[in-house]
Amino acid sequence: MSTQALQHSSSQQLASFVRLNEGIKGVVLIAFQINIMALNAILLSHRAGEVALGFGVISKELRTLSVELTGLMQELSSDAYQAVNLISDLLRRERRQHLLQATRQQLPQPLPALDAILAERLQVFQARGQQVREVRLRLLDRLEEARKLCQFGTAISRSAKIEAAYGREYGRALAEVSQDFDQKIQTILPSIETLCAGMQRI
């Protein structure tokens, strides 16, 4: 692969990781909203008393889920930041390598010292490339974990709808909260899917 092609490939990867970081921020915001909603739902279930015990348990589960998802997103953000730094370094090294190779081609005869520098820099470049691949795989694993967490959240939010039906005079309020839970979870899943697809294309 030519240096120009490598630069283009690295630039595309850099853009993908930057987009990933933006997507992560969106998921964190929704997870925060779920956390606040869950706290309110826990308070509501306390007011409702015995008829909303099951709803209270589910609300606590959703709050735990939101905290876990936020932690997972923070880890993803840290990995994405590391990848951006690695790829930025790769781009700088690619440009230097291109200049050295252009200089070498203009020389009337081979220069062993320059060849040694080129070979050494190529090794460092390949090592950086391997680090980027490792970060990408780690990101994919964490995104898959986030997807499973959201699928679990979907099941919990549907259980909340069932429990809301037993809320008697609080039934309507509990049903509204459970509907909000479901909508928020359903918003996160496509975001996670989009992030996964973006990482798989790199």
Proportion of helical residues: over 70%
Number of helices, where a helix is a run of at least 4 consecutive DSSP H or I residues:
4
Average pLDDT value? 88
* First-last Cα distance: 16 Å
Instruction: Give the low-confidence spans.
Output: none
**How large, in whole angstroms, is the Cα Rg?**
25 Å
- Secondary-structure element pattern, one letter each: HHHH
Given the C-alpha coordinates, what overall shape results?
rod-shaped
Structural class: mainly alpha
The number of distinct structural domains comes to 1
The CATH topology, please? Substrate Binding Domain Of Dnak, Chain:A, Domain 2
Largest sheet, described in full? none
Number-wise, the strands total 0
Observed structural traits:
202 residues; mainly alpha; Substrate Binding Domain Of Dnak, Chain:A, Domain 2; 4 helices; rod-shaped
What does this structure look like?
The two termini are 16 Å apart. The mean pLDDT is 88. The chain has a single domain, classed as Substrate Binding Domain Of Dnak, Chain:A, Domain 2 (Up-down Bundle), CATH 1.20.1270. By secondary structure, the chain is mainly alpha-helical. The longest helix is centred in the middle third of the chain and has 54 residues. Helix 1 packs antiparallel against helix 2, helix 1 runs antiparallel to helix 4 and helix 2 runs antiparallel to helix 3. This is Methyl-accepting transducer domain-containing protein. Keywords: Transducer. InterPro entries: Chemotax_Me-accpt_rcpt, MCPsignal_dom.
